[in-house]
Automatic annotation (TrEMBL), chain B:
It is found in: Cell membrane. The lineage of its organism: Bacteria, Bacillati, Actinomycetota, Actinomycetes, Propionibacteriales. Belongs to the binding-protein-dependent transport system permease family. The keyword DNA repair does not apply. Residues 95-302 form the ABC transmembrane type-1 domain. The keyword Transmembrane applies. Gene3D superfamilies: MetI-like. It is a multi-pass membrane protein. One of its GO terms (cellular component) is plasma membrane. GO terms for biological process: transmembrane transport. This is ABC transporter permease. The chain crosses the membrane at residues 9-30, 99-120, 132-156, 176-196, 237-263, 283-309.
Length: 340, 316
């Protein structure tokens, strides 16, 4: 086990939403830790609880959502119980967020300069003039051309890629310790995606900022992550460092996910493997393991007993939520044969 | 922007001609003739023909309209059939009180509607919100004449706090306080419907704005609720609200006609009712023209306001 102090430690997080059909649990028993400067990728299908996890950390859940239990320790402060007022001092300051939709995430009636300077005026106490200087610097840093003109432009004059750069500049403006990026490139053209990812990676490396990157793109994971947490139906089913995860995926879902991505060596015309069935509805979670209905290795036990996250032996912080490895968690047994 | 305005103003000319022509035709379709006013029990049908000829009513309708149009371009709206006073003078005399009444009502309505609409939006689906929505529904539903009579009954007759009508106390008064006293009830009637309508627009527009991604961005910056509401949400919410101000003005003109009648407010509205009763066509045409210009002007102002509020709108 590494002993570096955690910057962020999420423990047993459970987030619920009140709906007309009753209370649904979107995120359940989610735990992970993040060291300073580390990049963690949250991977999973739509509806697996990635974004809700991020919004829970930020305290930005919709009105009908709440953290039912669990803790989110950020530098030893529990964000779940922290009063709103103190939380506001952290948001945009020590923890910043980059959203998926650059086209709608900026306010259409305020200038770029107006929107970016708000954060530095609020958290760093800069004057308007200083803030303007800082914003121009930041815009230049994220590669926006003619920053001294763009600062007075409205968002509609910028392309999607440029707007996402502006959002990144906004996130960086107070030198946060943690950036949460929720699918920052999903809405962008493929060529722009690569540029934006490189920008995020370079800037976070330069400033030593830790990052939670939410994505469903395994290519992005391979490119960006130090560690990866795979989410399925509101739970983390496997967490490992990026090399381990790609070399030795353990959870049947992770393995299936890897197989469903085309590889450069896949012959053209071959059908891609897909995962049969569909993600269970939040209202009708299967008992036992949430993946058992779609799992090729499901056993009787999977139908009835909920697996816990198991720490795999001999691995550096490699955890998996699967009964197949129940024995592997004890020293001296192997597991590879099961999935051969 | 300049060339856009000129174009809009030029388009206004055929619009106004069309509106006044339709009005002219409708007025002439109404049964009865202005000449009836001049009849006495001893009048003969020859007298009717003579009076109609004097008033120019014996000519074909389109010729009459053409004459009206020609005079209009000379700044002449004709004379009242009723009392031979020039229509322009009559209108000028009545315009001031109406503008005072409508202007005050509009300001009062917005001062009420914007904060209450914002409050309801912020407390969406709470008892506060339901109260506001219910009150707004009531305000839109209650007719001007009914609300006016209730207010007169309660505040003028029963409590005796306020005058029943008119603009000043006849014989004495005419001071500022006296005028304000007379203004309160008619403004209350006229502002109620406008405020109720506007509250609903502001509320739904704010709820829509609060649900937008940029509000989440603003929250993620650590901004407080008041900055988010007043800086980020309100400016966006006002864009659709601005649109209905132009539409609102037409409703306000209609409401003013009824309200002025109830409170005997000496404005254009009261003149309208009097002129309809007297079949005073020339005065009615003048009033129609003013109303048409007002609505046209309000819509033009709305479009200009659009460009001011929303940076994405640019006119060329």
């Amino acid at each position: 086990m590494t002993t570096t102090p955690a910057l962020l430690q999420v423990g047993n997080l459970k987030t619920e939403f009140r709906t007309d059909q009753g209370t649904v649990t979107a995120v359940d028993e989610v735990s992970f830790r993040l060291a300073a400067g580390e990049t963690l990728c949250l991977v999973g299908e739509s509806g697996s609880g990635k974004s809700v996890t991020a919004l829970s950390i930020m305290g930005l859940l919709a009105d009908n959502g709440r953290v039912a239990h669990g803790s989110i320790l950020f530098e030893d402060q529990d964000l779940v119980t922290l009063p709103e007022r103190q939380l506001r001092g952290i948001r945009g300051n020590s923890i910043a967020m980059i959203f998926q939709e650059p086209m709608t995430s900026l306010n259409p009636v305020l200038t770029i300069g107006d929107q970016l300077s708000e954060t530095v005026i609020l958290h760093l106490g800069l004057s308007r003039a200083q803030a303007r200087e800082r914003v121009i610097e930041l815009l230049a840093k994220v590669g926006i051309p003619r920053p001294e003109e763009i600062v007075d432009d409205y968002p509609h004059r910028l392309s999607g890629g440029m707007r996402q750069r502006a959002m990144i500049a906004m996130a960086l403006s107070c030198a946060p310790k943690l950036i949460i990026a929720d699918e920052p490139t999903t809405a962008l053209d493929v060529t722009i995606q690569a540029q934006i990812l490189k920008l995020i990676r370079d800037l976070s490396a330069e400033t030593g900022t830790a990052m939670i990157l939410i994505t469903h793109d395994l290519g992005v994971v391979a490119e960006m992550a130090d560690r990866v947490a795979v989410m399925y139906a509101g739970q983390v089913v496997e967490e490992a460092d990026v090399f381990t995860l790609f070399d030795e995926p353990k959870h049947p879902y992770t393995i299936a996910l890897m197989r469903s991505v085309p590889h450069i060596s896949t012959p053209a015309g071959d059908r891609l493997a897909s995962i049969s069935g569909s993600v269970p509805s939040l209202l009708q979670m299967p008992t036992g393991c949430r993946f058992h209905e779609r799992c090729p290795h499901a056993m009787d036990r999977c139908r009835d007993d909920r697996p816990e996250l198991l720490q795999l032996s001999g691995q550096n912080r490699h955890t998996v939520r699967c009964w197949l490895y129940d024995d592997a968690a004890q020293p001296g047994t192997t597991d590879a044969k099961v999935l051969a | 922007m300049g060339s856009y305005l000129i174009r809009r103003l030029l388009i206004g000319i055929p619009v106004l001609i069309g509106v006044t022509l339709i009005n002219f035709l409708i007025i002439n379709l109404a049964p009865g003739s202005p000449a009836d006013l001049y009849l006495t029990p001893t009048s003969t049908s020859a007298d009717v023909v003579r009076v109609e000829a004097e008033l120019g009513l014996d000519q074909p309708i389109f010729v009459q309209y053409f004459h009206w149009l020609v005079r209009l371009f000379h700044g002449d709206l004709g004379v009242s059939f009723q009392n031979r006073a020039p229509v322009t003078e009559l209108l000028a005399e009545r315009l001031g009180p109406t503008l005072l009444l409508m202007g005050t009502s509009l300001v009062v309505a917005y001062l009420i509607a914007v904060p209450i609409g914002i409050l309801a939006a912020r407390k969406k689906n709470s008892p506060t919100d339901y109260t506001v929505v219910g009150a707004a529904f009531l305000g839109i539903s209650v007719p001007h004449f009914f609300l006016g009579l209730v207010l007169i009954y309660v505040f003028a007759l029963e409590l005796g706090w306020l005058p029943t009508g008119n603009m000043i106390t006849l014989g004495r008064g005419g001071g500022f306080a006296d005028r304000v006293n007379h203004l309160i009830l008619p403004v209350a009637v006229l502002a109620t419907a406008t405020a109720a309508n506007m509250t609903r627009y502001v509320r739904s527009s704010m709820i829509d704005a609060f649900g937008q991604d940029y509000i989440r961005t603003a929250k993620a910056k650590g901004l407080g609720l008041s900055t988010i509401t007043n800086k980020h949400a309100l400016r966006n919410a006002l864009i659709p609200v601005v649109t209905v101000i132009g539409i609102d003005l037409s409703a306000l003109i209609g409401g003013a006609i009824v309200t002025e009648q109830i409170f005997q407010w000496p404005g254009i509205g009261l003149l309208t009712i009097q002129s309809i009763g007297a079949r005073d066509y020339s005065v009615l045409m003048g009033i129609n023209l003013i109303a048409a210009v007002a609505v046209f002007g309000a819509n033009l102002l709305t479009d200009i306001a659009y460009a001011v509020v929303d940076p994405r709108v640019a006119y060329a």
